[in-house]
Amino acid sequence: MNTVDPDLAAMMDDVFSDYRETHVGAAPGTRIAYDRALWRRLDSLGLVRLTGAEESGGSAASWFEAAELLSAASRHGVRIPLAEHDLLACWLLDAAGFPVDDAVRTVYVVPADGHAAVPAPWAGDVDRVVMVWQDNDRYRLADLDTEELSLTAGTNLIGEPRDTIHVDTSALAGTVVPTELACRLSRKSAMIRAIQVCAALDRAVALSIEHVASRVQFGRPLAKFQAIQNLISDAAAEAALARAATEVALRAAIETDWTSSLLDFRIATARSCAGHAASVVTRNAHQVHGAIGTTHEHRLHEYTRAALAWRSEYGSVRFWDDRVAAAAVAAGGQGLWPLIAAG
Fold first, then answer.
1. Is-contact 123 106, C-beta < 8 A?
2. What is the separation of C-alpha 307 from the centre of its chain, rounded to a whole number of angstroms?
3. pTM of this structure
4. 129-162 pLDDT, tens per residue?
5. Which residues contact 244 (CB under 8 A, 6 or more apart)?
6. Which of 12, 13, 64, 325 is deepest in the core (most CB within 10 A)?
7. Pick from 51, 109, 48: nearest CA to 81
C-alpha cells in the first residue's frame, strides 16, 4: 500500500527474500510446518504482533503495514500464520480485554448448528486457539490450549494446515463478547485472504512477463507474439482490478474502523474480483509458460495454487458473487451507481 514507509516495506521484503534464498519451498502434497526460527526473527523485528497495542507487546502499526507484510510473505511464497495470529486471534483477545502472551495463536469460529465444520488454519501447529461461537443471540470467546482440543489434520491446496476441530461448546464456559466483534472478525478474515490472493496474482503475472521477455521461439521473443501479449494483458488487467478493489475495501475499513455501512459491499466486491482474477491469471500464466510452468522446480505453481486455495477460504467465489448481486438488487436502479461510486 502506498501509505507504508518505503524503508519499512523494503525491510519486510528483504526478510522474506533472504529467507527464501536459503530455504526451498515444500513439495506439492506435503503438509507445511511454519519455521519457528523465522518466527523468532520476525518477533525480534516487531512483526509478529505488528498491529497489537504497545501495552500488550505489539508494535501499534496499522492494517496498511499489515497488508504490506502479508503481501511480502505471499510474494516470496513463505507460509506462516502471521495473519491468523496478529490480525485475528490476538486482535480478538485485545478487543475482548484478555491478556496476550507469547503463545502463537490462530482463530476458529465454530459453525452454527447444521452447518458443516470449516477447517481452522494452522490449528495443529500453533500453541493456542481463540475460539468464537454463537450462544443463542450472543457470542462467546475462549482462549484454549491446542493440546486440549480434538483435531483431525488436513491441509489446503498448498499444504498449509487446515485442521478440523471437534468441540462441544456446551462444555465450554467462554466469555460473552459483543456481536459486533464477531462481525468484524468475519470482515477481517475475508480481507486477509483478498490481500494474499492479490499478492500471489501479482507475482504470477510478474513471472509470466519475465518469462515471455526472455524466452525465444521461432527466432523471436515470446513477448512479440500477439496471442501471448493478449494472454499477459488479460492476466495483468484482472490482477490490477482485484488489487484496486481490495485497496478500496481496505482503505474504507481502516478509515471507518471496520464499521462503514458500505464495507460489507466493498469487501464482497474485492473477494469476488480476486476470486475471478485467480482463474484468469492461473490459466493464462500457465499457458504462456508452457510445460515448464507445470514443474515443481519452477515457482509459478507456488503462486497460482496459493491464489486458488486462498480464494475459497472465508467464503467461496460463489458466496461473494451472491453478496455483490444481493447488494446491487437491494440498491435498485436509482441506487446502483451511488453504491458503486461511493468512496
1. yes
2. 9
3. 0.94
4. 999 999 888 999 999 999 999 999 999 999 999 9
5. none
6. 12
7. 48
3-state secondary structure 244-299: HHHHHHHHHHHHCCCCCCCHHHHHHHHHHHHHHHHHHHHHHHHHHHHHHHHCCCCC
Report yes or no: 81 and 96 within 8 Å, Cβ to Cβ: no
- CA torsion sign for 152, 90, 88, 282 is negative
Residues contacting 57, CB < 8 A, separation 6+: 49, 100, 102
Looking at residue 39, its amino acid is W
Helical packing angle, 6-22 and 63-75, nearest 10° = 30
Q: Between 338 and 89, where is the model more confident? A: 89
Residue 267 has φ and ψ, to the nearest 5°, of -65, -40
